[in-house]
């Protein structure tokens, strides 16, 4: 080991140099998730030190690699120390970084061009703004859908989603998590079998009836589906159906409530079973409806003032207090 003294000293010096850079990066990080990531890499660096072979080649290889990595990370550290939270949010967002690199490359493929054609000023800057909010709250903001993914989902579901909502999916995110200063929006996901559906509160959406025209019927209380004697030809048939009704707890989105919400997407939870629906099919497509049926508060269209209907973007921005 004495003959290896020089290489061991260089090995230890290089290890300490990179370890110090990792500590500085963790201290300079703006966000908890990023700080944990640098701490994780520092722990991996410690494990690599302990696992280095006690040979000249092992010491030399590790020292060379660590010095090179430390030199590269010093540039990242300097940029981190000079950055604003907004700049860091853009650097950390994989979707934003992907868009930037695709714009710089000369030969952009058809998907990149389709992404840019699909973008509109409707949600300009909102991806960056919400990514920043998500980092502050230590939440995950899903990536937007690609035009190809959205087209596949709409084909499966048999509908074309309202334009304002489509733009959010393409430009901002496939869903908005709870705990942010904007309303949560049920995420549109593809499962392992390739089937598209909404998660969370969105599971209340009747996918098989999404293409049916929305009835647009406002009610003060949920309709009562208790059997009535007049609907049966005999007392025996009526009593049998009544007994079945009394002993069965139908699902919330079953008939008759399901009849009122067909052709609409359950998009946002108000808590305690109440929700906001986005009309997808029929003449009222794009409008937002409030569902308080579970608390007997009724089902009704959201309106601005007395008559103006509320569409998706109006609702989303209004809920943020803008």
UniProtKB/TrEMBL annotation:
It comes from the Bacteria. Residues 107-118 have a biased composition (Basic and acidic residues). Residues 144-318 form the Knr4/Smi1-like domain. Pfam families: SMI1_KNR4. Residues 41-63, 77-119 are annotated as: Disordered. SMART domains: SMI1_KNR4 (SM00860). This is SMI1/KNR4 family protein. The lineage of its organism: Bacteria, Bacillati, Actinomycetota, Actinomycetes, Kitasatosporales.
